[in-house]
Write a structure and sequence with these properties.
Elements lengths: L11 H75 L2 H13 L4 H17 L1 E4 L11 E7 L8 E7 L1 E4 L2 E4 L1 E6 L1
Parallel strand pairs: 2-6
Antiparallel strand pairs: 1-4, 3-6, 4-5
Helix pairs in contact: 2-3
Length: 179
């Protein structure tokens, strides 16, 4: 019995062994390629995570910047607005003194009312002082008096009116306080 041979002069067993070796080599190459692809995938995931974190951080920084600049802009506007309003306070003081000197003069009362209306439209309010508890954020105590008939730390007299724009004090009220 003669061994069968194929066109390359190989026996079927040799052909099978060679095919098995080729398959093992191909399988090993696929395993290596799969491992390399897995490593590339992990590297890509890590890079994506890093970039995503960077994106989230930059987005948060931008949002904080936007809020901060909006707050700064509002504060600058309020300061400028209060500075402009402060220029009218000497006129209000002069009208108050004129009203004290000539209480029956209707012209001075009309001017005071007009200025008070303008202040009201601008959002400027007078700081109430007489009879109120002393508040160092609103009042500037320039005199102290001892009086047992009054509650302690009470404003008893206002020498110069104070004004504020919303919560911002434009000028503190100058007052006399009972200790």
């Amino acid at each position: 019995m003669a061994k069968e041979k194929n066109e390359n002069n190989e026996t079927p067993a040799e052909t099978v062994k060679e095919s098995e070796k080729e398959l093992r080599d191909a399988l090993e190459a696929l395993k290596n390629e799969y491992a390399a692809l897995g490593k590339t995938l992990e590297d890509t995931k890590a890079e994506l995570s890093t970039r995503n974190d960077s994106y989230v951080r930059i987005t948060a920084e931008y949002e904080n910047y936007r809020k901060r600049t909006a707050a700064e802009k509002a504060a600058i506007y309020a300061d400028a607005y209060a500075g402009a309003a402060e220029l009218f306070l000497p006129m209000a003081d002069a009208l108050d003194r004129a009203a004290e000197l000539a209480p029956e003069d209707k012209g001075i009362d009309a001017l005071r009312k007009q200025l008070t209306d303008i202040f009201g439209r601008l959002g400027i309010t007078e700081i109430e002082s007489d009879g109120k508890p002393f508040d160092p954020t609103l009042h500037n105590a320039i005199m102290h008096e001892d009086d047992e008939s009054q509650p302690e730390s009470t404003v008893v007299q206002t020498f110069q009116r104070g004004y504020r724009l919303g919560d911002k004090v434009i000028r503190h009220a100058m007052v006399k306080v009972v200790n």
